[in-house]
Amino acid sequence: MVTGNVPGLVLAVSSSAFIGTSFILKKKGLRRAAASGTRAGVGGYTYLLEPLWWAGMITMFIGEVANFVAYVYAPAVLVTPLGALSIIISAVLAHFMLKERLPKLGILGCVCCIVGSVVIVLHAPQEQSPTSVIQIWGLATEPAFLIYVVATLSVVVILVFYFEQRYGQSNMLIYLGICSLVGSLTVMSIKAIGIAIKLTLEGINQLQYLQSWFFFSVAAVCVITQLNYLNKALDTFNAAVVSPIYYVMFTTLTIVASAIMFKDWSGQDASGIASEICGFITVLCGTIILHATREQEQTNTSGTAGSGAWYGSNRGSRKSGDEEQLIGVHSSDFFD
Questions:
Q1: Distance (Å, whole) CA 91 – CA 136
Q2: pLDDT at 128 over 90
Q3: Which residues pair with 311 in a beta bridge?
């Protein structure tokens, strides 16, 4: 393991602990809000009056700050996959606090996430931090990354203005797709901001450049968009399912974006890159196992055949009780 990545590693692990806990606190806040007002999944904002939701937001903020700083000291191919630890934390807490049962096979998924994370940590490349915002701007305006940005924004617009109204309440990939695509741009902007702040504190003022403020603006818009659609996903679907699917999509897109913009694997030998990819695939397998076992458990419980089933804890009216309404969705909606 590259010793220069240790500060980023510690911050990334701490970030996962806070973020994993925040999912549960926010979910409990959303449940309480839905019982007394309009659900977030259908456009309600009564959750803003819930202390538990704000506790979750504060916890997530602390985790995101730690994650923010981690990107300054370690490459995205190391920091982002370690988000798998937040899945384990949220799945375990959901089991005890939200009564969203984690099947025994889910333990195997957790182990896979941990093993994959260790492999990634051991083979992650040394962070090669740019020396100025102007240099980062040069990376962000290269043709390859501009193509990625245009493609990402195009897909987001289609999801928001066409698919959300039609399938948002039945297919979690709509909300999570928007979160993940926008999130990949968030990470690139946050990494640029972190480097700019670090250089400024070292006496090399980067705030004099308009590019720094552009990255601040992009990050602010992207974070607000992410939070909005993540709230909708958590309110509509099961937290134990939302967390791993969001992780898989967000991590994959962030690694792709970082590899294009910051060239994280430049100079690393083939064996190191192969090891990182294997570690990442292992983590993905862990999240898929967590997802699949959760789906199987709920399908067996409902007695539904031929379709995947998730329980949207806040679907339907909450005024008549804290019951869960079954959401039946064909498997092809999620894996095609």
A1: 37
A2: no
A3: 326
Torsion region of 324: left, alpha or beta (phi above 0 gives left; psi -120 to 50 gives alpha): beta
- HSE on the CB side for 233, CA within 13 Å? 25
pLDDT (tens digit per residue) in 141-172: 999 999 999 999 999 999 999 999 899 888 88
Mean pLDDT, rounded, for 322-333: 32
Least confident of 13-17, 163-167, 243-247, 304-308: 304-308
What DSSP line would sit under 69-124, residue for residue?
A: HHHHHS-HHHHTGGGHHHHHHHHHHHHHHS-----TTHHHHHHHHHHHHHHHHHHP
For the chain, what is the total number of helices (H) and then of strands (E)? 13, 2
Please give the model's pTM, rounded to 2 decimal places.
0.70
Please tell me the number of Cα atoms within 13 Å of 187 on its side-chain side: 30
- Give 129-193 as a DSSP string: --SSHHHHHHHHTSHHHHHHHHHHHHHHHHIIIIIHHHHTTT-HHHHHHHHHHHHHHHHHHHHHH
Check if the beta carbon of residue 83 is closer than 8 Å to that of residue 248. no
Q: Residue 179 CB: number of other CB atoms within 10 A?
A: 26
**Contact predicate 335/311, CB 8 Å:** no
Q: Which helix (H) or strand (E) element contains residue 262?
A: none
Task: Determine phi and psi for 17, rounding to 5 degrees.
Answer: -65, -45
DSSP class of residue 127 equals: P
Residues 213-229: tens digit of each pLDDT: 999 999 999 999 998 99
pLDDT in tens, 46-72: 778 888 889 999 998 999 889 888 988
Neighbouring C-alpha atoms within 13 Å toward the C-beta of 83: 28
Phi, psi of 329 (to 5 degrees): -135, 135
* Mean pLDDT, rounded, for 6-28: 89
Taking the CA atoms of the chain, what radius of gyration do you get in angstroms? 20
Closest among 330, 231, 293, 322 to 104, alpha carbons compared: 293
Residue 116 backbone phi and psi in degrees, to 5? -60, -40
Bin 102: left if φ > 0, else alpha if -120 < ψ < 50, else beta.
Answer: beta
